[in-house]
Specification:
CATH superfamily: Rhodopsin 7-helix transmembrane proteins
Largest sheet: 3 strands, mixed
Strand content: under 5%
CATH class: Mainly Alpha
Strand order of the largest sheet: 3-2-5
Shape: elongated
CATH architecture: Up-down Bundle
Number of strands: 5
Distance between the termini: 5 Å
CATH topology: Rhopdopsin 7-helix transmembrane proteins
Number of helices: 10
Order of helices and strands: EEHHEHHHEEHHHHH
């Protein structure tokens, strides 16, 4: 990557630009974000309260749904309050270590969300393809192990991203983040050093979690649909299919995540190579 005389040693404070080109109207843009955040908090909180208070809902399907609601609250809380601070109160600065912690939270909760969707798909797979063995397969202990695995997998996988940034990247070409929150590629793009290892690990980590989950979820629903279409009664087919519709709607999560990750990596790679070609020092 291009290294120039304006490069600075690891900054203690970073600054968010917000939404480039829309700085003058960001106070108005914050209103719908705030409304959606409040709606998400209220809706998911009510969901958690209902599932906790109603004993008949203490089943794997609803436990995973509660995990999804809690994850939605966590990931939105990790992003929106700071975003509103930028838009409304002109608080664009964030400590470097705090930015790293926010990055860890965001990517960890994204991985948890993907894992919960995978768990929900597996739950429907067992319920429809092996209904008589459902209670013996998805026991309370099995659900606990699945939940712990869903949480630990992304939490551990994201840690090397933090270490690669903290320990390997010392020189930075700018302190400005053209974003409203800290995420891996946005931080890596600030560096004035060779970031190939960080970029490759970040991309591999994203596809290891999201790509693997998407493949397993897709295969699960293919098997589910084959089983449903072979049911003799039309009412049974409709009932089984209706239980899967809400889960199928979550496929947009994987599609959006894939294109966002691809777009960020492509932009970062193009900027790296362009900087390397026009600079005096090339470390691309």
């Amino acid at each position: 990557m291009f290294i120039n005389n304006s490069s600075v040693f690891m900054p203690s404070v970073l600054t968010f630009i917000g939404i480039p080109g829309l700085e003058s109207v960001q106070c108005w843009i914050g209103i719908p974000f705030c409304a959606m955040y409040i709606t998400a908090l209220i809706g998911n909180s009510l969901l958690l309260i209902i599932i906790k208070s109603e004993r008949s809902l203490h089943e794997p399907m609803y436990i995973f749904l509660a995990m999804l609601g809690a994850t939605d609250i966590a990931i939105s809380t990790s992003i929106v309050p700071k975003m509103l601070g930028i838009f409304w109160f002109h608080l664009p600065e964030i400590y470097f270590d705090t930015c790293l912690f926010q990055m860890w939270l965001i990517h960890t909760f994204q991985g948890i969300e993907s894992g919960v969707l995978l768990a929900m798909a597996l739950d429907r797979y067992v319920a429809i393809c092996y209904p008589l063995r459902y209670a013996t397969i998805l026991t309370r202990q099995a659900v606990t192990y699945i939940g712990v695995g869903v949480i630990l997998r992304p939490a551990i996988l994201v840690i090397p991203c933090l270490l690669l940034i903290k320990c390997r990247l010392k020189l930075y070409s700018t302190k400005l983040i053209s974003h409203t929150y800290c995420e891996h590629m946005a931080l890596v793009k600030l560096a004035a050093e060779d970031v190939y290892v960080s970029e490759v690990y970040g991309l591999l980590g994203a596809f290891t979690v999201g790509g693997f989950d998407f493949i397993v979820v897709t295969l699960s629903y293919i098997q589910i649909f084959m089983t449903v279409f072979h049911l003799p009664q039309k009412e049974a087919r409709l009932k089984a299919f209706n239980t899967c519709i809400p889960h199928i709607c979550f496929f947009y999560y994987y599609i959006v995540s894939f294109f966002v990750s691809y777009d960020i990596f492509t932009c970062s790679w193009n900027q790296t190579c362009i900087s390397g070609m026009v600079g005096e020092n090339i470390a691309c």
